[in-house]
Amino acid sequence: AQSVTQLDSQVPVFEEAPVELRCNYSSSVSVYLFWYVQYPNQGLQLLLKYLSGSTLVKGINGFEAEFNKSQTSFHLRKPSVHISDTAEYFCASLTGTASKLTFGTGTRLQVTL
Amino acid sequence: GAGVSQTPSNKVTEKGKYVELRCDPISGHTALYWYRQSLGQGPEFLIYFQGTGAADDSGLPNDRFFAVRPEGSVSTLKIQRTERGDSAVYLCASRVENTGELFFGEGSRLTVL
Question: CB distance A43–B105 less than 8 Å?
Fold first, then answer.
């Protein structure tokens, strides 16, 4: 069965600092990976996705993630965060044999001045 | 509308009551998903429809939960004899088959008193 692990439940960071949100997945078959963001009292919004091809994926709002098959990771990065990036971030996986997304438990990014 | 629409946005009910939550997916999306998100957790899969039929209902927690999609568009999640533990945000998502990306609604927040 596929699973997604987000080790950091909360990540505090100062504005304009870089940030990395960690995600590890487990799957023995081909996998598609996603990062979703959830702002307070809003639905989930797709940040970026890896389906195939280049392992470095660029998304909206300046975020990017790198698919690393050997380390089974898909960490999310942003070189300089803004206050408006404060939100909950979810990593999710979809394997080639399943039709449902499996989510991690989420990482709360708290950006302060 | 252009996005996934869920109603009601908030529902407060008493223990033991029956509840229906509605989801109107993006037009043309054949796949529809229900997820449940408890406080501080990632979304948990409940059920997936492909067209009118439930292709995977392995996430439904017990037989008090049921979902239908009679015409392959709008779906209703039905919860009988609600319990306090059913309190959560119920998320609906839809996608065009085989693209991998799910589009989420803003959710229906259910509170069982």
Answer: yes
